[in-house]
Amino acid sequence: MKIVKLKKEMKKIAEGLRKSRCSIGFVPTMGFLHQGHMSLVEQAKKDCDKVVVSIFVNPIQFGKGEDFKSYPRDISSDFLKCKNGGADIIFLPSTEDIYPKGFQTYVDVSRLSKYLCGISRPGHFAGVATVVLKLFNIVKPHRAYFGEKDYQQILIIKQMVTDLDVDVKIINMPIVREADGLAMSSRNRYLTKVQRERARILNDALGMGERLIKEGERNPKKVVKELRGMILSQKIGEIDYISICAPDTLEELVEIRGKVLIALAVKIGRARLIDNRLIGI
């Protein structure tokens, strides 16, 4: 496994791989890897000749007062997991190399960014889209892999790739969960023991929402009310949002029909956790 720190070197390697007709699978991460990340590496390994994992805590997707400085990091553990998982290259750039002095260009996927997490985290998705496009230009992957826990992020990246004619196929992979149903997240580390035990309510609430819909409830406001009450009963934190929306546009629904997305975000102590479930009726 090769570790590359400079974007100039990464570009040269990627160009060489493409010239030799090697397919490149890419897994962009912010590090502190867990089994959710490794499921992406595993799939990339199956699909592609070479797998590149980037580890870069992207400063421009964090807002004022968010956890950029305290975001969990463990490079040694990440290296070991990538090596054992079969990654061929780790791209570990510096902030200065990604955003050199004078940097001023951002990518704004405006419509999809105004819903869900975009409401409470203004500018977040411009930061995400910008760094992902830069990484695509550097790594030059044929396929890039993302987890469905970040459902809105996947939609935004797919839209960006379509709008800007980026030559990469986006592969979304299922959410990987802990044994009790909590979606795996690097930020789960922030939870105390009690908070961690109660955090399972997020997945339980999604399950209840699915049951209500499949039992015939078609009023999204009634479903949201039930989910809100269920989560608040645990007294674990503050609900950012609970939304029942169209899976392709993220627009809130006035009536539940066809395929819908239940998405939620809850602040529990220092952690802001998101989760979602696609439901077809």
Write a structural description:
The protein has 281 residues and is of the alpha/beta class. It folds into 2 domains: 2-173, HUPs (Rossmann fold, 3-Layer(aba) Sandwich), CATH 3.40.50.620; 186-280, Pantoate--beta-alanine Ligase, Chain: A,domain 2 (2-Layer Sandwich), CATH 3.30.1300.10. The chain has 10 helices and 9 strands. The strands form 2 sheets. A 6-stranded parallel sheet has the order 1-4-3-2-5-6, sandwiched between helices. A 3-stranded antiparallel sheet has the order 7-8-9, with helices on one face. Strand 3, helix 3 and strand 4 form a beta-alpha-beta unit. The chain is globular.
Mean pLDDT: 97
CATH architecture of the largest domain: 3-Layer(aba) Sandwich
What portion of the residues fall into strands of 2 or more residues?
A: 15-25%
> Helical region count?
10
Largest sheet: 6 strands, parallel
Pathway: Cofactor biosynthesis; (R)-pantothenate biosynthesis; (R)-pantothenate from (R)-pantoate and beta-alanine: step 1/1
GO biological process, one term: pantothenate biosynthetic process
EC number: 6.3.2.1
GO molecular function: ATP binding; pantoate-beta-alanine ligase activity
Furnish the topology, listing elements before pairings.
Elements: E1 2-4, H1 7-19, E2 24-29, H2 35-47, E3 50-55, H3 75-85, E4 89-91, H4 95-98, H5 117-120, H6 124-139, E5 143-147, H7 151-163, E6 169-173, H8 193-198, H9 201-214, H10 220-232, E7 238-245, E8 259-268, E9 271-280
Parallel strand pairs: 1-4, 2-3, 2-5, 3-4, 5-6
Antiparallel strand pairs: 7-8, 8-9
Summarize the structure.
The chain has about 280 residues and is an alpha/beta fold. It is built from ten helices and nine strands.
